[in-house]
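User: quick one, fold this
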Amino acid sequence: MADFHFIRPWWLFAIIALALALKLLNKYRLSQSGWQQLLPQHLANVLVDKQHSKQKLSLTLPFIIGLLAIVALAGPTWKKLPQPVYQTARGSVLIMDMSYSMYSTDISPNRLTRSRYKAIDLLEQLNEGEIGLVAYAGDAFTISPLTDDINNIKLLLPSLSPELMPELGSNPLAALTLAHDMLVNAGHSKGDIYWFTDGIDNYDIQDITNWSRNNNHRLNVLGIGTRSGAPIKLNNGELMKDNNGSIIVPKLSVSALKGAAKRGRGYYATLANNNKDIEQLLYKPLDIEEQQQKESSNTGDEWQEAGPYLLLLVLPLLLPYFRRGRLLAILPIMLLITPVDKSYADGSTLANTVQPSTIATSEQVPSENLARSYWDNLWQTKDQQGQKQFNAEAFQQAANSFENSSWQGSSYYRSGEYEQALTAFQQQDTAEALYNQGNALAQLKRIDEAIEAYTQALKKNPKHEDAKANKTYLEALKKQQEQQDQQQDKQDKQDKNKEKNNDENQ
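Assistant:
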């Protein structure tokens, strides 16, 4: 009992309020008595004093009930339970180089295609925190704001190409600055930046060095290409040439990129045929601050409350009050002993606690679930239950609990059930609901409908940046697909004519 203490000791001040309230109640009863005026003084003193003693006795039980309730709410405890500490995941930004040198064919089929595949590999291994997507050429653009939905970013990657960039060239500093702004605005003073590029110009090196000195982010660089390089093959099949008519052969500047990663406290890797390059980029040794936190404490403490057991003592004491007209008198005390869910009582959330796992027989599970459901329904709304399940990443259960269609749709979306998510989002006609409909439709590959949903969202809220960005890139993706289809039709037609000519020659 050496560790005995109260988790919420400020509740003990309520004992003073309880005593004052009962004293005032007793005084009020005496003032309402008419015997003082009707009886002689010597009889009134005797009778009223006896009545006063009975009233004091009648207030003893309410005081005991109130005292037990207040002590229970104060959270008496002496048993400590170890709990793992969860640290906030770092935010990440993926930067994709969209300069025309990415069409170089020194790696098959070209640098751009291989960088897209590697981006997907990176996303699949980034299993925590939020991630955003930035593309750059002569200027930088936000393709996707920070999100924990990597599938949305995967959907955008195939549409990225140098042709989509409104300004030619290569401006990595603009991309790094934009990535920094995204991370800081999302509350990440220290983030991870993954930069996929085939090189930097000499005049950019000092600017990138200064950027690294002024920011705390970790810069990891993946070099795309080879030291020998290869010509840039454009979509029309021609090789890119400079102003003098010479074929341009961009080469991977390994030393410059290694230096940029080192000064940015990150790692450099050259694109490989296996996952060792991605694993090297994802290797994150603890920095000094994180190391000190780890050495000082790997676990946090949570105390097991004994308050609920005190409430069991209160229940028998309430039995004398279950008579007509008397239960109303102790309603304030009953409100004090109403059970309060822990997540609301002390500010902790389900995501920060570890629920004990139990092994139950098949006969026990239904009854336990029924009892738990009944208890939750008694003290929490459906949306409150759904919120707890959502925070615990039990998205399917959360979807079944939520009555709010927006949260229900989000739960279905996070569980990968995009049809059900779409149905839930369609119950509202707000800009945010239409934006969410567009996301669900995009996941279902219904591109035209998704674009229309984003369009409707922008009509209701022209400043909805996420809807604007998603609409732009779905339109670009659609255009690219149409071009590919046209090229394929053209190729099929040429092949057909070629076969026809061969048959005629034979």
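User: anything notable?
Assistant: The two ends are 102 Å apart (CA to CA).
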